[in-house]
Write a structure and sequence with these properties.
alpha/beta, TIM Barrel, 8-stranded parallel sheet, 8 strands
Length: 318
């Protein structure tokens, strides 16, 4: 398992009856890897894992593993209300053939360092798979400080990476100072990726990559190689879209973008509902402006056949 490059937090596709669309998930996973992504992360926040049953989660992991068939690693997002269920899912992910885990704190209960450390450590030690700690204080109200992350890494050999979603590039600098190369540091917020790489990050758990993999990979590579002019030019074009990853309805917006370019459906499970009114209009205007000025270096994207049941205003204009 190599923790580097662009790894999509893949969305979970649903059929019209809101059951899981395994056929599309498999196609989507292959398409993302075909376009340069280095792995797939399933069951993250963007994957609506909180609305999935345990059996649905395991089935999605199995679908992704079969679809990629060893071409790229599948990482399982491990999030649960209870430590016991998180451990059970971690073990099921290993059985399903996953190459690694992305471990989240409990997504309702947020407490002190003693309790959060105990939860994370119990999950990480429940398997020999390499693990990524997911730090997202904005969404989960639990903030793992750099010194605490260092402590977890020191005490758990199979904790090898961290997804830093505090949106503060200084956290990357602090982690590098404390841990050196002991941990692979991934940026987990789309609109701070260039800043994060310049601070020392070596990976990106990305959101808009679900619709724009070629652009995401190109941006990451430009920034990682120090091609600042190319990175900054592509970043300026991409930022209005990337900012969709930073708002409460990021799942709905990213799925809407997927639908509009012919790479999925905007269907979400309640309590989420598809965006409407002014929110929808603004999102579509942002997307259309981006498509009109799409960089030439990233236009040639390997495609999969769009869902014929979904009509797309944006794709009809391409």
């Amino acid at each position: 398992m190599k923790w580097k490059g662009v790894m999509p937090a893949i969305t979970t596709a649903f059929k019209e009856d809101l059951s899981v669309d395994h056929e599309f998930i498999a196609k989507h996973a292959r398409w993302l890897v075909d376009n340069g992504c280095t792995g797939i992360i399933a069951l993250g926040s963007l994957g609506e894992s909180a609305t999935l049953s345990f059996d649905e989660k395991v089935a999605i992991l199995e679908t992704c593993v079969r679809a990629l068939n060893g071409r790229a690693p599948v990482v399982a997002g491990i999030a649960s209300l209870s430590t016991a269920e998180a451990v059970r899912l971690a073990r099921a992910a290993r059985q399903a053939g996953c190459s690694g885990l992305m471990v989240l704190p409990p997504y309702v209960y947020s407490s002190d360092w003693r309790e959060m450390k105990a939860h994370m450590q119990t999950v990480i030690r429940s398997t020999n798979l390499p693990c990524m700690l997911y730090n997202n204080p904005v969404s989960y109200k639990t903030d793992f400080l750099p010194s605490q992350i260092q402590e977890l890494a020191r005490e758990n050999r199979n904790m090898v990476a961290v997804k830093e979603s505090s949106a503060d590039a200084r956290r990357v600098t602090a982690l590098k100072a404390l841990c050196g190369d002991r941990l692979a540091i991934f940026v987990g917020v789309d609109d701070v990726i260039v800043e994060g790489i310049r601070a020392g990050a070596t990976g990106w758990v990305a959101g808009l990559v679900n619709a724009f993999p070629r652009e995401s990979v190109a941006l990451f590579n430009y920034a990682a190689r120090g091609q600042h002019k190319k990175a900054d030019e592509l970043y300026r074009w991409f930022l209005p879209l990337l900012r969709m990853d930073t708002v409460v309805k990021f799942v709905q917006l990213i799925k809407l973008v997927q639908q509009e370019i012919g790479m999925g459906s905007e269907r979400v499970r309640p309590p989420r509902l598809v965006v409407t009114g002014a929110e929808r209009k603004a999102a579509l205007e942002t997307l259309k402006a981006a498509l009109k000025n799409r960089p030439k270096t990233a236009r040639r994207v390997n495609r999969i056949r769009p869902d014929p049941r979904v009509r797309s205003a944006a794709t009809q204009t391409l």
